Amino acid sequence: MKCDMKTSTQLEKDLYAIDNTLLVRAGETINKKLLNKIAGLAGKIRYVPIKETRLEKDLIKSFNDTRYVNILYPPEINLKVINYINHIKIPEKIMFELEHMKEISPYTYHHIMIIAILAGKISFDHSIRYKYSPDKAILLSLFHDIGKSRIPLSILDKRTPVTQEERRILTTHPLIGYVLLHYYFGKDHKKYDFSSFQHHERLDGSGYPLGIKKANKYSQLIGVVDTLDALISERPYRSTPYSLRAAIDLLLEEADKGRFNKSLVRTLIIYSRRETPGTKIIIGQRGRDSAPADNSYGKTATS
Ligand SMILES: [Fe+2]
Ligand SMILES: [Fe+2]
């Protein structure tokens, strides 16, 4: 669902940074001028390494998520991804944001960890390795849902499908994240195409918040793994998650409709068709997995 410009550039509640600085007032229009002003408030940015933090431990732990065993293989590549993680520094206030997220919504925090390592791992794949840098993919993935911490938990962790109004509120999280990142990176924000703002955009223009057809390439990568994780994760509003194969089949259908980058989805297909990680890749010898009976894709918000 597209947001119109009004809802995509204004927030209903005042937005505060993690250090309680007021960034945007309710109803204030968020435009380039305001974003530059917010970036100017930040002063000198203190960067901290991920290495030897709880964040590093949680990222490494996420490699043990058995749902992704076919993608997170072989271990040598995982070690390379970990090596990249250990060279990344992030603004300290983003570290605080992620710690806060872990406290209030462990599901969203774990989802962010998974997206970061999947995006890092896929960046190594032979078909796309020349177009992505794994450290940037990891870094931008860590920020992609940062705005969700400002969505009421009653909506974020709702046990039944969200209503249209709740979905509208949920869809403000990319804009909230975009604003927060301008403050946390200050003047350095110019170095990044923040994926937080575009990971729900789709190549046919059916995404949000702007409905643009050309999201930046990191957003496209994050958008694909983000949807995959939303489909195969256990969520309170559905009894059975998608299997990895059924989820990838759905992503392929969506790519055929022009919504996702096909080469990214093809990479996932190659991973998913490894019968056993480490054995030879088998393509074209399998039927389809069906969607769960209470399939809610497209009816409820994905992450
Ligand atoms: Fe997400
Ligand atoms: Fe999101």
How would you describe this protein?
It is a single chain. The chain has 303 residues and is mainly α. It has a single domain (5-272), classed as Hypothetical protein af1432, CATH 1.10.3210. Helices cover 46% and strands 4% of the residues. It has 13 helices and 4 strands. Strands 1-2 form a two-stranded antiparallel ribbon. The chain has a two-stranded antiparallel ribbon with strand order 3-4. A hairpin with a 5-residue loop joins β1 and β2. α5 crosses α6 and α11 (217-232) crosses α12. The protein is globular, with a radius of gyration of 19 Å. The two termini are 14 Å apart. The model is unreliable at 1-7 and 279-287 (pLDDT under 50). One fe (ii) ion is lined by residues 145, 173, 199-200, 303.
What's the structural blueprint in terms of helices and strands?
Blueprint: H1 5-9, E1 15-16, E2 22-24, H2 32-41, E3 47-49, H3 54-62, H4 75-85, E4 89-91, H5 92-104, H6 106-122, H7 134-143, H8 153-156, H9 164-170, H10 173-185, H11 217-232, H12 244-256, H13 262-272
Antiparallel strand pairs: 1-2, 3-4
Bound molecules: fe (ii) ion (2 copies).
The site of one fe (ii) ion (FE2) has 6 residues, from α6.
Bound molecules: fe (ii) ion
Q: What is the CATH topology assignment?
A: Hypothetical protein af1432
Estimate the mean pLDDT confidence: 87
CATH C-level: Mainly Alpha
Helix-strand topology string? HEEHEHHEHHHHHHHHH
| Gross geometry | globular
The number of distinct helices, counting runs of at least 4 residues, comes to: 13
Task: Return the domain count.
Answer: 1
Strand content: under 5%
* Distance between the ends: 14 Å
